[in-house]
């Protein structure tokens, strides 16, 4: 088959180019257990076509992966998700979503490198998975906020009860969100940026 030179596309699409006004870029990691909505959040909020590494789930995961509450899920992230959002004309966030299945958690260390902060997505149907996730961030000293993804069939709890169950200090923000909605996901990222700003201000005045 003959191709014309005009048929070949090389390099990023025009809409994927970094805005010329961008002056600072920040790496943010979105973490959580299996099926909590990390890929969904990256996809809903990204201003570029997100990069995903989803693969079809197979029998190899039966008895190994805990998919309670996500039994209908047919694909899973095996490396990372990647997206980008401009918070202002000058500030750009690069978003990295981690794989949720525990057998892929060894990849988290590389994704944490250089991250300024993180969003911990939780599912109240499987709250216990979040303990290890939060523990890993605390061990690495990565500042984070917690976002409770609003699944239709998930139990609702007062935020202070969730804070107590997760043993979160008062200064760590915990918010509700709907990872399917761009505005809601963006609000979560803004909460994280305000939290990181408050940490920087406190350090500067110390």
UniProtKB/TrEMBL annotation:
Q: Name the domain of life this protein comes from.
A: Bacteria
Alphabetical UniProt keywords: ATP-binding, GTP-binding, Hydrolase, Nucleotide-binding
Q: Any idea which GO molecular function terms this record carries?
A: ATP binding
InterPro entries found in the cross-reference section: Gliding_Motility_GTPase (IPR052705), Gpn (IPR004130), P-loop_NTPase (IPR027417)
- Protein family membership: Belongs to the GPN-loop GTPase family.
Protein name per its UniProtKB record: ATP-binding protein
């Amino acid at each position: 088959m003959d191709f014309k030179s005009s048929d070949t596309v090389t390099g990023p699409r025009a809409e994927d180019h970094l805005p010329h006004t961008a002056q600072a870029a920040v790496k943010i990691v979105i973490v959580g257990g299996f099926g909590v909505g990390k890929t969904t959040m990256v996809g809903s909020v990204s201003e570029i076509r997100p990069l995903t590494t989803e693969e079809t789930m197979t029998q190899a995961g039966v008895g190994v992966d805990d998919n309670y509450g996500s039994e209908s899920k047919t694909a899973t992230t095996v490396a990372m998700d990647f997206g980008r959002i401009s918070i202002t004309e000058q500030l750009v966030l690069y978003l990295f979503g981690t794989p949720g299945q525990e057998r892929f958690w060894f990849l988290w260390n590389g994704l944490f490198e250089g991250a300024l902060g993180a969003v911990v997505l939780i599912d109240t149907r499987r709250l216990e998975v979040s303990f290890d996730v939060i523990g890993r961030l605390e061990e690495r000293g990565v500042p984070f906020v917690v976002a409770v993804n609003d699944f239709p069939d998930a139990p609702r709890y007062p935020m202070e009860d969730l804070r107590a169950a997760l043993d979160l200090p008062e200064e760590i923000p915990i918010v509700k969100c709907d990872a399917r909605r761009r505005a809601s996901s963006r609000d979560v990222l803004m909460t994280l940026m305000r939290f990181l700003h408050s940490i920087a201000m406190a350090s500067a005045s110390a």
